[in-house]
Prior knowledge:
By secondary structure, this protein is an alpha/beta fold. The strands form six sheets. The chain has a seven-stranded mixed β-sheet, sandwiched between helices. Strands 20, 25, 26, 27, 28, 29 and 30 form a seven-stranded antiparallel β-sheet that branches.
Amino acid sequence: MTSLPQGDQTQMTTTSPPQTTPSLQPIPPVQAATTSDAIHRLLNPRRVAVVGASDDIVRIRGRVMHLLLKRGFDGTVFPVTPSRTEVQGIKAWARIGDIPGGVDLALIAVPASAVLGVLEDCAAAGVGAAVVYSSGFAEEGGAMAEVQARIAALCRDSGLRVIGPNAMGFYNILSKTAATFSPAAEIAPVDLPTPKRGIAVVAQSGGLGFALYNRGVRRKLPFTHVVATGNEVDLEALDFADHLLDDPAVSQIMMFIEGVKNGHKLIPVAQKAARLGKPLIVAKVGRSAAAQRAAASHTASLTGSDAAYDAIFGRYGVIRADDQDEMIDIAAAFSVCPNGRASLPRGRRVAIVTSSGGSGSWMADAIEQAGLAVPLLSDALQARIRPVIPSYGATQNPVDITAQGLDAFDQVIEALASSPEADAVVIVAPLGSIGAKLPFDAEALRHAIARAGKPVVFYSYTPPSPEMTALMAEVGTAIFTTLTGCAAALAHLVRYGAAMDRLAGAGSVAIPAMDAIAGRAAQALDTLPRDGLLTEFQAKRLLAAAGIPVTEERLAGSAAEAVAAARALGGPMALKLMSPDLPHKTDAGAVLLNVQGDQAITAAYDKLSGPVATALPDARIDGVLVQKMAQAGIEMIAGVMVDPDFGPLVMIGSGGIFVEILRDVAVSPAPVDHAEARRMIGRLKAAALLAGARGRPAADVEALADLLVRLSHLAVATADRVQEIDINPIFVHTHGLIAVDALARMEDTTDRGRAIGRMAATAAAAGE
């Protein structure tokens, strides 16, 4: 077996190649266990080895053991180091395989070059799981990236489950298992009662994950777990989220993620969270356009990586936050809803009570800017409040009891909390000192909140004292320290409740023609190229297979065929040069509009097939499309992008030449039903135009929703072949619509396909 380096090794990173010796003993087969079972045992170990343990509690490998002991772990701890016979007063062992009775969990704090050998020892000794704190692996590159790959193979082959490397570990507050070196683990009193229900934190960044815990504890929020997954050579953030959702003690999960290694896990986790009514509050970094993968179509540039996350989050009620304080504010708001959906606001109406007229008005502005309402209270409710406040106070909403009416706080809070006219109550009061006389009776407030069945929260315009923060947590409410944070958190509660109602009432996304769409799409695919870009004429075969209305058109290979097609179709024509190497035809002058008459049709054909085609020497020409001019309407765009992690995403947006300038789009995972399609359309700025702005007739939104549904089912049916579909523009009329132009990108499976993709990207970039 591999021995640990001698001496007091403290440096945990290295740039040198790994110095390991393969295990001399065969790794015993490990009985397969579900990931959730493995995580349960990992988070609740009874026998823990600290590999590389030290007496120096300032260094990571000494601090890990120190925190484990100090935070109340009541299992057995085994220091492992060949250079000591005792560490921190406990008998030490030279190798993990020497420990009698085995080990549930190994905490590994050794130089990076020694980690693989230690993990091989763990696997040979039958250790169930390990946390690797050491850094300097894939993030360093070179030989150490290969070592990380070998660790991943070891996990697959042996059944050993690993957090890290480059991880800060975890803190299971419920079992008092602090398997971390983060100083944040010490912020709460060690004898603090464990919560019956609380918040779990799962983060790829240990620093940020434990920072969320740090900030939340200062706000007196209850926590159950903090897990930092690091490089995720084996176990991932989504694995832990999936497991913790099943824990009855976990009421909500905060996550920080930079990216998802196995994106197929995200949607099931989001669905489970919604089904259980446990909010997922996620900070997902990486909004930059650099994450976009293709430029062949507008759809590709509008459904990049970050749009995919937003689409999934929006579909399943996952709450996306932009910074740590916002995450804590949202978690604080959910913490005052102990009965889940039954405690959430039933609407957007917020009642405000304050002793400072100015701060109450400021809060009202913040509430309405967050998309909520501060409605005028009924005469009956105002009449109930008026006798208990000074005559110069205000009862409309905000209710201003004035500085002289502090004794009325209890009665006013009770009146608003019990009234069906308010979906949430915000109390604006200075809560800076526990020593000052409270403007309300704490026990009365507790009973009022318990009876209210709605969020009742405080905003303190002076910094609240820790004692006051603790007192408010005990009575079932939370204190916010910013106007916008309070308002935004309440708005998130409202949106989350609406999302849960929507998901609970959602029917099947199937439509009667689904099987027919799949069958017709398969027939169309048999006649189309297997890779590269499809021309408009080819792409519309797929749309027609899904029952999406397309323009009347014919493909001509000669001027005579073009004239015959125009005569048969009748009316003004659009002529377009068809080439799979020309995704943006207009930019190349390959589109001629409103052409009518035999002579004009012939001249137009000759121009496209002659000078225009000659200017594109590398483009393959399939012919000239003769298309009946469509009646103008409101221009929209729709499309599909098959994300490599999340599958097909369907998009709807404002169309025409300004699509990428306005970026007015909505995206959702496919398939979608009509309700989801209408919701997507309603999120657009163009929704007002579709509804009939400035006296114009309303457009056929139902037809547009039907197109989205059909397109989404086409996307699902063809996802293994069709990577992208772009329909732009769609002309939406008062009755019906028509798809005017389209392209599609098939899976690139050959060198020719990859070359076409590069040509398409180059042409698109030049056109834009």
